[in-house]
């Protein structure tokens, strides 16, 4: 026999209705919300409960993980504050699919802060039997949610290992409806090329040195169309080629037979003997090299030492550029442009030669490193390491938490979308892939930062001989190295060159180099660079 609810518990004064969208079937999401509201209002009417319109809470966030639903957390907060003391929902699994938030609901019942709890699809009595049954419902909801996520993720990984993938087709290919493998798109739109042949022609044109704009024009003039559509033929979008899409395609290793997805690589030529690669590996590498040369060409106007020169008067970065001399020789010049805007009294320009002389003088000092200087370096290193490690360790914990949160979001996104991806329209798929790419990029950045922090914690000082040989090598590299090498040396050893009119007044060094020299020599300058 079920024990009756506590008769001494006063009825609730203010009710809220909590509605959460179901993500099990995307086609029923809107209807699900309407049905939940209708049935919850029916419960309220049946029990003569009045619910304010602002207290009907509709949540679209998943309940699989705690801390993911601001509206739910706000509701719990209002119950703890006594603003809400009654709650109506369609079913317990709408309230929580994780044990932390399920525990919060049960805790509110135990504390009698939540005086009444009603469900449309579950009969709840507020006694120990009823609370136990409610807890079981929460456990079942969590088990269902966890199993769904595991099954979907496992299915996705298994499909990827077989050489199959979700998402839109790669240009020039389609996926077989029977086995799910990629195969050439033989569609001919009346221009004498199949879609596969068109994309293959694009690769050949690129190898022949054609520009992206020329290739895009050719493709669009000869019937290239990428069709994005759902099974419903009304939801159809035709997408022409663009410079950005073509550039991304030329960077995709899929065309030589490597399928990349979720950080894993599969060689399609091994798992699918019928796969037809569009280009050979050597040709693919040539296309990548062409892209790199183009980037290098863009970067040729990035002058050395930019961002390292600071005006002594206004403490702002100086401008830097090249000028042509009387004998057609190029010179590097730096000057302060803050005279008009900030009233900086700086005069004249400083030549790149003065910068190199100052750097060379510092490197000459490095070459005479004594054992006393080395001991100073060790003391400074250990002191800085202790400070840095404290910072690194303090950063690791929140970074790991952020990474795990992003991984949960990614798993949840994949679990929710993958089973119904084929039914999504083009816009929804685009949003899905954009969000997925954003999460994967953030996770990768977290991993790289995590590795950087751990490497920093493990960093050890160089021994005296190794450090001395390294410091002596800097002068040689500065003397015989290219402009790029000189700029690289400066950026790795110098924080700033402090410039006073036409001279270097001070050189501020990075560690461990600052610990290897007499600081007064740097501050006071010297004949080598003044």
Descriptive report:
- The chain has 530 residues and is of the alpha/beta class.
- Among the domains are: 15-159, Rossmann fold (3-Layer(aba) Sandwich); 173-298, Alpha-Beta Complex (Hect, E3 ligase catalytic domain fold); 373-462.
- It is built from 17 helices and 16 strands.
- The strands form six sheets. A four-stranded parallel β-sheet has the order 2-1-3-4, with helices on both faces. It has a three-stranded mixed β-sheet with strand order 11-15-16. A three-stranded antiparallel β-sheet has the order 12-13-14.
- Strand 15 and strand 16 form a beta hairpin.
- The longest helix is centred in the C-terminal third of the chain and has 47 residues, at 371-417.
- The N and C termini lie far apart (98 Å).
- Mean pLDDT is 79; it is low at 1-5, 25-31, 230-235 and 519-530.
At a glance:
This protein has 530 residues and is α/β, with parallel strands linked by helices. It has 17 helices and 16 strands.
Defining key terms:
3-stranded mixed sheet, disordered C terminus, alpha/beta, Rossmann fold, 4-stranded parallel sheet, single chain, disordered N terminus, 16 strands, Hect, E3 ligase catalytic domain fold, 530 residues, extended
């Amino acid at each position: 026999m079920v024990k009756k609810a506590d008769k001494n518990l006063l009825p609730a004064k203010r009710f809220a209705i909590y509605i959460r969208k179901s993500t099990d079937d995307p086609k029923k999401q809107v209807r699900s919300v309407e049905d939940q509201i209708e049935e919850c209002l029916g419960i309220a009417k049946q029990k003569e409960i009045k619910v304010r319109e602002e207290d009907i809470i509709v949540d679209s966030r998943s309940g699989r993980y705690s801390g993911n639903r601001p509206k739910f957390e706000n509701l719990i907060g209002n119950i703890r504050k006594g603003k809400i003391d009654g709650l109506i929902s369609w079913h317990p699994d709408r309230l929580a699919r994780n044990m932390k938030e399920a525990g919060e609901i049960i805790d509110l019942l135990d504390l009698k802060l939540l005086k009444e709890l009603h469900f449309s699809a579950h009969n709840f009595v507020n006694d120990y039997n009823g609370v136990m049954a409610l807890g079981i419902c929460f456990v079942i909801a969590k088990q269902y949610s966890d199993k769904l996520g595991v099954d979907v993720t496992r299915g996705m990984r298994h499909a990827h290992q077989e050489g199959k993938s979700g998402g839109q087709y790669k240009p020039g290919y389609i996926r077989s409806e029977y086995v799910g493998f990629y195969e050439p798109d033989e569609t001919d739109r009346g221009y004498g090329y199949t879609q596969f042949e068109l994309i293959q022609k694009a690769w050949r044109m690129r190898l022949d040195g054609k520009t992206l704009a020329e290739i895009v024009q050719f493709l669009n003039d000869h019937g290239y169309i990428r069709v994005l559509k759902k099974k419903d033929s009304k939801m159809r979008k035709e997408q022409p080629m663009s410079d950005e899409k073509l550039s991304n395609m030329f960077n995709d290793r899929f065309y030589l037979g490597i399928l990349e997805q979720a950080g894993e690589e599969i060689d399609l030529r091994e798992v699918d003997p019928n796969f037809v690669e569009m280009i050979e590996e050597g040709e693919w590498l040539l296309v990548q090299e062409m892209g790199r040369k183009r980037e290098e060409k863009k970067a040729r106007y990035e002058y050395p030492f930019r961002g390292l020169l600071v005006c002594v008067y206004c403490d702002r970065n100086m401008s830097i550029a090249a000028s042509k001399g009387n004998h057609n020789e190029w010179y590097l010049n730096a000057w302060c442009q803050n005279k008009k805007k900030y009233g900086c009294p700086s005069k004249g320009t400083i030549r790149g030669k003065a910068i190199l002389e100052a750097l060379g003088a510092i490197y000459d000092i490095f070459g005479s490193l004594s054992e006393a200087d080395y001991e100073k370096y060790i003391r400074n290193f250990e002191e800085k390491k202790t400070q840095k490690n404290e910072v690194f360790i303090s950063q690791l914990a929140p970074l790991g938490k952020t990474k795990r949160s992003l991984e949960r979001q990614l798993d949840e996104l994949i679990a929710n979308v993958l089973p119904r991806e084929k039914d999504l329209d083009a816009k929804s798929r685009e949003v899905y892939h954009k969000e997925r790419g954003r999460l994967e990029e953030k996770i990768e950045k977290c991993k790289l930062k995590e590795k950087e922090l751990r490497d920093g914690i493990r960093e050890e000082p160089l021994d005296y001989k190794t450090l001395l040989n390294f410091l002596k090598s800097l002068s040689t590299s500065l003397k015989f190295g290219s402009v790029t090498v000189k700029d690289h040396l400066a950026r790795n050893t110098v924080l700033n060159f402090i410039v006073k009119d036409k001279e270097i007044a001070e050189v501020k060094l990075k560690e461990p180099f600052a610990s290897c020299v007499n600081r007064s020599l740097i501050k006071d300058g010297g004949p080598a660079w003044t």
